[in-house]
Amino acid sequence: MKNSFMVLAILISFYFSMNNHTFANEDIHQEVGTIEPSTFINNQELTNLKDVSNENVRQLQQPVDLNELQRRYPDIVFLEDPNNTQNQIALTFDDGPDQRFTNDILDILREYNVPATFFLLGSRAVAYPEIVTRIQNEGHIIGNHTYFHPNLVEEGDLATLEREVSRTEDALYELINYRTSLFRPPYGFLFNELVEKVAELQYDVIAWSVDSLDWQEEPPEIIANRVINEVNAGSIILMHDGADWDGNRTNTIEALRQIIPTLQEQGYNFVTVPELLNIPYQK
Ligand SMILES: [Zn+2]
């Protein structure tokens, strides 16, 4: 038994040494504390280990890296448009609507005539319906980011996912009159069965290729430079218009004033996620 644990540890560390790409840690903030990339375990690697029973795999369930999920489910999970030839990029905003910050972001987007994609929390959409209406009226696209922002992997059951997604879908439908088909998981945390459930609910999973890390609330120029330096044609950029009660998105707002004109001057065209990926945004 001891030997099998050692084999497991060696295989896991081998896996991480072979996969030195950026882990897509979305807004991992106060709610759950910072989660180190090393806590990610590739489910397939675990399943391949003969001595690990299914029961143990269940107990060890961890988020699967989104790059890996994209390879496993190329028609469901999207990180970017890898073949974009039109210099298109997409701004995305999570965790809103937020009465403290979302309107300022909408003002900037309007000023620069930039459409974006907002992944809303159902609970906040119900609390601030007028902001949801404004997002829609100003030409932006709305996606589903669950109702209460749970860690779906920690919850681990498909019923939680279905409840969170469906409740949000129904709440948004009341406000925007369409059923969104775009889903972004809180923290970017999913594993195989959850992806398959999302697909069954007729959603695409929209991840990202450029993480602004704006939830860390660094100075605006640091957030802006990170995005500007990492963008390529086809990039999906992760930012946040919403925050916890003690969070602040003022630096995100200021960073946008640098990001948008700089990238426009470099010849990039901002589009919505469904336009970038040429996928539908409603069912
Ligand atoms: Zn989020």
TrEMBL record:
GO MF entry, a single one: hydrolase activity, acting on carbon-nitrogen (but not peptide) bonds
UniProt keyword list: Signal
A Pfam family reported for this protein in Swiss-Prot or TrEMBL: Polysacc_deac_1
PROSITE patterns with a match to the protein in the record: NODB
Signal sequence segment: 1-24
UniProt-listed GO biological process terms: carbohydrate metabolic process
Domain NodB homology span(s) in chain numbering: 87-271
Record's keyword annotation contains Lipid metabolism: no
Protein name: Chitooligosaccharide deacetylase
